[in-house]
Design goal:
disulfide bond; 5-stranded mixed β-sheet; 5 helices
């Protein structure tokens, strides 16, 4: 069960419900922590391909909360943020969406997260 071992070491939080989304969003907002949710689907290959990239970013930017939201499991959240294609990445600060990237583009998501981190005054580990 190699994947379970990897999941236990993951810095990416998998959102299981609307309640857990709201809880993490509230907690991160109260702490002034930027948030980067990855809206994904298990059947979407571009989303699956971005998972290791997202994990690497979560290890690099430890003061950012990285969330994974499966659109089939947590439809209410995907609908609220008008997610219509996967993968979709939101960049959030102070609980509000400040940017959105649709598609599997590792270089672009890195660049946008770097910009988010700089705008929030968060430092890279």
């Amino acid at each position: 069960m190699e994947s379970q071992d990897q999941e236990s070491k993951s810095r990416v939080v998998k959102i299981q419900s609307k309640d857990s989304w709201e809880s993490y969003l509230s907690q991160a907002t109260n702490q002034g922590c930027p948030i980067v949710p990855h809206f994904t689907a298990s059947w979407c290959m571009p989303s699956v391909v971005m998972n290791p990239v997202f994990e690497e970013l979560a290890s690099t930017y430890q003061d950012v909360l990285f969330l994974t939201v499966d659109v089939d499991d947590v439809k209410e959240v995907a609908t609220k943020y008008e997610v219509k294609a996967m993968p979709t990445f939101l960049l959030m600060k102070e609980g509000a969406q400040v940017d959105k990237l649709i598609g599997a583009n590792p270089d672009e998501i890195k660049k946008r997260i770097e910009g988010l981190v700089q705008s929030c005054g968060v430092y890279v580990a």
